Amino acid sequence: MDWDVAIIGGGPAGLSAALLLGRALRTVILIDNDRPRNAVVKASHGYMTRDGTAPGELRRLAREELRAYASVHLVSGTAADVSQADGEFLITLSDGSSYISRKLIIATGYADHLPDLPGLREAYGISVFPCPFCDGYEHRNTPMAVFGRGEQVYPFTKKLYNWSKDLALFTNGPSGLGARERSELSDRGIPLFEEPIQELASRNGMLHAVILRGGAAIPRTTGFIPDTGGAEASDLPERLLVKRDQTGKFDTGPHGKTSVDGMYIIGDAKNAFTGLIGAAGEGYEAGTILLRELAEEDWSRCR
Predict the structure, then answer these.
(1) Which H or E run includes 37?
(2) Residue pair 250/126 in contact by the 8 Å Cβ criterion
(3) How many domains would you assign to the chain?
(4) How far from 209 is each of 120, 156, 224, CA to CA, in Å?
(5) pLDDT at 303
(6) Spatial contact of 210 and 217, defined as CB atoms under 8 Å apart
(7) Which residues lie closer than 8 Å to 53 by C-beta, 6 or more apart?
(8) Is the distance from CB of 260 to CB of 148 less than 8 angstroms?
(9) Residue 178: CB partners within 8 Å, gap ≥ 6?
(10) Using CA atoms, how far apart are residues 63 and 15, in angstroms rounded to an integer?
(11) What pLDDT sits at residue 44?
(12) Which residues lie closer than 8 Å to 100 by C-beta, 6 or more apart?
């Protein structure tokens, strides 16, 4: 059958769009490979009524809600290719199955490509995190490490100062910070370590020290890293010649609309970081716009 809307990606953005469209009696195929960016995270925060719920549980609850709508169909799989012809989209999965839809939402999110720091993967998502809004509160006033260098790390450190005054900045090489930044860090008692990092020492994922080359061990119990090497989890929009803007993100207009008629990109796939509630909001928003488009098309066909 031809579906009204195909949604690729079953995170909060895609699930929210599917819920709105299903309640409007639209036929929806939602394709997801169950590889979310936040799979390592123990609990999600900032999502009203679900603060502290595990990300996997949030997804499970949302899928259960969708099963109440007969017009919404959930498919487990990876979208390998997408094309457009005669005003319709053809989505082909890695197992060879395919689906045709009038409209297309890409909500595949971001994927992290962590820097090569020994011990980082063991602690990531347990005691080392990318987002202080997500995990800062639970680790407030603890000895925090900030890992990174370049333009991002100084403003990121200033932001973390809100959650803990016991900060230490580790740049794993020359920081690139100027005299003013160094002075301001020193004035606030924030040490700067530019020595190469030998290891992030942890037990069962719980950070307890940052070991520098030469053996110095700096006690830390929590770490934050502003640059996780994130990139779009899927290049499917490029198959339809969606261009990128000056920041490298896919070029979209209001509500995630792309230059390809009928195609939208939402959530982290559009913004790099949206947050759970922001992504869900974008799904709802894109759903309302698509409903309007579909209604207008159907109305015109009835002449």
Answers:
(1) none
(2) no
(3) 2
(4) 12, 21, 13
(5) 64
(6) yes
(7) 43, 44, 47
(8) no
(9) none
(10) 7
(11) 86
(12) 1, 2, 3, 88, 89, 90, 91
The one-letter code for the residue type at 178 is G
Place of tokens 């959930």: 74
- For residues 48, 53, 56 and 59, what is the CA-based torsion angle, rounded to 10 degrees? -30
Rounded to whole angstroms, the Cα distance separating 180 from 178 reads 6
SS3 assignment, position 146: strand
| pLDDT for the residue 164 | 97
Ranges under pLDDT 50 in the chain: none
Domain C-terminal end among 196, 224, 252? 224
Domain that holds residue 182: 120-224
Q: Which helix (H) or strand (E) holds 6?
A: strand 2-8
By the 10 Å C-beta count (0-12 exposed, 13-18 middle, 19+ buried), 213 is classed as exposed
In sequence order, which residues have a C-beta less than 8 Å from that of residue 199 and are 6 or more positions away? 118, 119, 210, 211
Two tokens, residue 213:
């080359």
- Give yes or no: residues 177 and 95 share one domain: no
- Is there a single domain that holds both residue 236 and residue 107? yes
Which residue type is seen at 156?
F
Question: Cα 69 to chain center, whole Å?
Answer: 27
Looking up residue 219, the CATH number of its domain turns out to be 3.50.50.60
* Centroid of chain to Cα 92: 24
Nearest CA to 43 out of 64, 24, 57 is that of 57
Q: Provide the sign of the torsion angle of the four alpha carbons 158, 159, 162, 167, taken in this order.
A: negative
Q: What is the pLDDT of residues 127-175, one digit of tens each?
A: 999 999 989 999 999 999 999 998 889 999 999 999 999 999 999 999 9
